[in-house]
Design brief:
alpha+beta; 5-stranded antiparallel sheet; 3-stranded antiparallel sheet; 2 domains; 378 residues; 13 helices; 15% strand
């Protein structure tokens, strides 16, 4: 069976709840989309707003507060929000990468032996069995580092050690002064256990982002392609192989949603770093190649985007009086009308929380080429 690029686009949108908002709880929506990048505290809220009918931000607060949804360093070694039931498997799946990159790859150059590093990880998790601020953890480390800089050691352990972020208040549950608590999982350093966990991650990934290639899955999780291939072989029969638009093999779950190519995709105001834009090696699935550098900046920032007919068509930012939208090509009047309705709902959500959560990124706005810009009144 061969699938077209547009069919893949529609399948991804359907599984990411972007063809229509659904009447789901925050926990159920999080399970469906698998993971939301959470470098910016506001982004998971805006991502959920795009996916849940009449989202109440207080429900996101509650999910973080009771650890139904947890936030920690996971795929691609970046901050993600995931369902609590998924955290352990996702962390175990990427453990070989985390170990090689942080503990084995950086700890010895930092001035401590691997044995000392493993001991510090174990002791740090015991100390963080209750919420600890970053300052408390660095102070705990200082007498244990000898002549080595505790700041450098903390930078490594903060990324490597399986700790989750503790909600500390503010408009989006988390502030810039992070607090940590040990996760229920522990570093396994067990390749067999990691392999089984990767199988679980692959199934969850395909359910949320498929159809996808081996390279897509490996890039999303930042694991070796050989490990993904091995996982797919172990799951023979549970995963379907098809031919993608470029002739490469793509994999999917039998019976997973694959809407017709002509299925309507409504306009959406996407959050910064929405994982839907980042979950595949081939970003053309949602981002036209001529717009990629406009949306994904050279420093790695992924801007808030306009999604039109399932593809990126511009960017947006909060502004005085509403949402300022910049389109990279001409948009029909009815699309602007739909964006105006979206903007009104988004402005109302932001007004109760933080009117301009992405203000620090306004510098990129002046660097856009000549585009059509409109203020969508709130």
């Amino acid at each position: 069976m061969k699938v077209t690029a547009r069919a893949i686009n529609r399948a991804t949108l359907a599984r990411q709840l972007l063809l229509r908002r659904e009447p789901l709880s925050v926990a159920d929506a999080m399970h469906r989309v698998m993971a939301l990048q959470a470098q910016h505290a506001a982004s998971p809220y805006l991502a959920m707003w795009n996916r849940i009918i009449d989202l109440d931000p207080a429900d996101v607060d509650a999910a973080f507060a009771d650890y139904t949804v947890v936030k920690g360093t996971l795929m691609r070694m970046t901050l993600h929000a995931v369902h609590t039931d998924d955290y352990a498997a996702f962390r175990d799946a990427i453990e070989p990468t985390m170990y090689a990159t942080h503990l084995n790859g950086r700890f010895t150059p930092a001035g401590l032996t691997l044995d000392a590093g493993r001991a510090l990880v174990r002791d740090l998790l015991e100390f963080a069995d209750q919420p600890r601020t970053g300052e408390e953890l660095k102070a705990w480390l200082e007498p244990r580092c000898g002549a080595v800089s505790p700041t450098g050691v903390w930078a490594i352990l903060r990324s490597y050690t399986p700790m989750q972020r503790v909600p500390t208040g503010g408009p989006w549950s988390f502030t810039s002064r992070s607090t940590y608590i040990a996760a229920r999982t522990r570093p396994v350093l067990d390749l067999e256990a990691s392999a089984k966990a990767l199988e679980a991650l692959v199934l969850r990934y395909l359910a949320a982002f498929g159809p996808a290639t081996v390279a897509d899955i490996a890039q999303f999780a930042l694991v070796q392609q050989a490990r993904v291939k091995a996982a797919l072989r172990e799951m023979d029969g549970a995963v379907e192989r098809m031919e993608g638009p470029d002739g490469k093999a793509v994999f999917d779950l039998p019976g997973a949603p694959r809407p017709a190519e002509d299925t309507a995709a409504p306009p959406r105001l996407m959050a910064m770093w929405d994982n839907t834009l980042l979950a595949h090696v081939d970003r053309n699935r949602l981002i036209p190649p001529e717009y990629r550098r406009l949306v994904i900046r050279s420093n790695g920032d992924v801007l808030p985007t306009l999604l039109v007919d399932g593809y990126v068509a511009g960017v947006w930012r909060p502004a005085e009086g509403g949402i300022e939208a910049a389109a990279f090509h001409d948009l029909p009047g009815e699309v602007w009308e739909e964006f105006a309705a979206e903007a009104g709902a988004l402005v109302a959500l932001l007004a109760d929380r933080e009117p301009h959560p992405y203000r620090r990124y306004d510098s990129w706005w002046s660097k856009l080429p000549g585009v059509e810009t409109r203020l969508l009144a709130g």
